[in-house]
Amino acid sequence: MAEPTIASIVTTLLSPGKGLLAADESFPSIAKRFQPLGIPSTEETRCAYREMLFTAPEVNEFISGVILFDETIRQRMQGGIPVPELLHQLGIVPGIKVDTGTVPLANFPGEKITQGLDGLRERLSEYRQLGARFTKWRAVIAIGEDTPTRTALETNARVLALFAALSQEAGLVPIVEPEVLMDGSHTIERCEEVEGATLQSVFDALCDQRVVLEHMILKTGMVLSGKECPQQADVAEVAERTLRCFRRFVPAAVPGIVFLSGGQSDIAATERLNAICQTSGAPWKITFSYGRALQAPALERWKGSADNVAAAQASLHHRAKCNGLAVLGKYSPEMERVKPA
Known about the structure:
The structure is a single chain. The chain has helices spanning 6-13, 27-34, 43-54, 70-73, 83-89, 120-130, 150-169, 188-208, 235-249, 266-277, 292-302, 309-327, and strands spanning 19-22, 63-68, 93-97, 102-104, 112-114, 134-141, 173-180, 217-220, 256-259, 285-290. The protein has 341 residues and is of the alpha/beta class. It has a single domain (6-331), classed as Aldolase class I (TIM Barrel, Alpha-Beta Barrel). Helix 10 links the parallel strand 9 (256-259) and strand 10 (285-290). The mean pLDDT is 95.
């Protein structure tokens, strides 16, 4: 069987009615999710949890790719099968988070830069040998009274661009993720302004770095009111402003945009995705790359017990199906009344 090309991997990831499962939580992040449910965060529990997610019956009908963490891509499921091989057998493309997290940006209080470029070329080669076919790198942009600064935008954009270029050099599809955080009391108008400035900086840097836009995917957030903003925009306004912002700043050469959930509730993330995808005429394919918005109900039902695996998988399948239909603009709130078994 011929090795898939970088172009064919992009096409598979953007298959109609499918999206990505972000299962790339770092050790502190997954421990934070386990702790309220009394689940210890050990290598064994993390492996069992992700096996529960990946082996959910028929979830591959709605999931085209999974973003893995460094630990997970090296693990084996029951029966000794490596995680990337299991996903390949299910028709799901394995990917890998390659950044190593954020740190404060020197001399710019409240702003951050993402680390992980040191040794990245060598790590990318190893990840490809382990079975990864795409990569992801996240930058975070905070909205405040005096932020983001031009320096923070441009510095993060240059790092994202270098990551993308190195990924393509290794034959991997880069998912470029500039996340404008929901935290704060900013208005949706302010979010649209910052999202636009962020995307402009990112694509300027990508072009300067000679990244092939046709061989990458953009992962970013919707244009939303800040979490603490007293005036919360409705679904229709979110869709209108998000698409307007993308049309202004995302080149048509980019094959697809995948949304992060970024702290939205699972149902709100689905409703907004559906509204965006119901608008025709976008030059890119649009889908989802959700972590918590797909996993939260399943994790709550699993609770670390093998006895709860089937119920947890039913919850994951339900959320994946709802979002898969939202990508097609065919989701309806009535679907939430059908509770998973």
